[in-house]
Write a structure and sequence with these properties.
There is one protein chain. This protein has eight helices and no strands. It is an all-alpha fold. The longest helix is centred in the N-terminal third of the chain and has 31 residues. The relative contact order is 0.18.
Length: about 200
């Protein structure tokens, strides 16, 4: 995972069934993880007292993590967007997210932002910098959508909200995703996917 260019043979030319299955499975799993994050958000909001409304920005990056993980493993266009949308559907339909159906729109925007960093490299670079930018873009892009829906524009703490969300996206939605991907790669459980074929091609 050094960020170098892989061999063209490291990635099969078309989506494979196992890629789709992995994307769906991880989307579902992280749908439950995201629901747990909602509970953590509520708890943190209480602990933060008067500043509790900012808790969502502190934890926000956690809701971005499935996109870069899936992209890094299968290395397919739109994989990150699809995984985020699947996770949001699980939250809304099966877990009763208080955000409601609009969560699916936000998830698609998050996924798009997270995916842009990898798309810019044509899904060939997966180093720390790309993951960091992915987290920043995912958090930043959806922030302005959320700001419109929630009426944050014009608030004195608008800039503080943005900074907190960007930092959270960078750390939780970017760098932590890289840590998870590298850990999975070391176990060998993803050797049959594009990430594993690239490692074999480099060897």
């Amino acid at each position: 995972m050094s960020g170098t260019l892989p061999s063209r043979r490291a990635r099969a030319p078309f989506w494979e069934l196992k890629d789709l299955m992995l994307m769906v499975v991880l989307g579902v799993v992280f749908g439950f993880v995201y629901w747990v994050l909602v509970q953590a958000w509520n708890g943190l909001a209480i602990l933060m007292g008067p500043a509790g409304d900012l808790a969502q920005h502190v934890l926000f990056g956690g809701w971005l993590i499935v996109a870069p993980i899936v992209i890094a493993i299968v290395r397919r266009p739109f994989a990150g967007i699809a995984a985020e949308v699947i996770a949001s559907v699980v939250e809304v339909v099966f877990l009763g997210s208080p955000v409601g159906p609009t969560l699916v729109i936000a998830a698609a925007i998050q996924g798009l932002g997270s995916e842009l960093a990898f798309a810019a490299t044509r899904y060939r670079r997966f180093g720390w910098t790309v993951f960091a930018v992915s987290g920043l873009l995912g958090a930043g892009l959806v922030f302005f959508y959320s700001a419109f829906r929630s009426g944050w524009y014009g608030q004195d703490i608008f800039a503080l909200r943005l900074v907190l969300q960007l930092v959270s996206g960078l750390v939780l939605g970017g760098l932590l995703a890289k840590v998870v991907v590298d850990a999975l790669a070391r176990t060998g459980v993803v050797d049959n996917f594009a990430i594993g074929r690239e490692a074999t091609a480099r060897a």
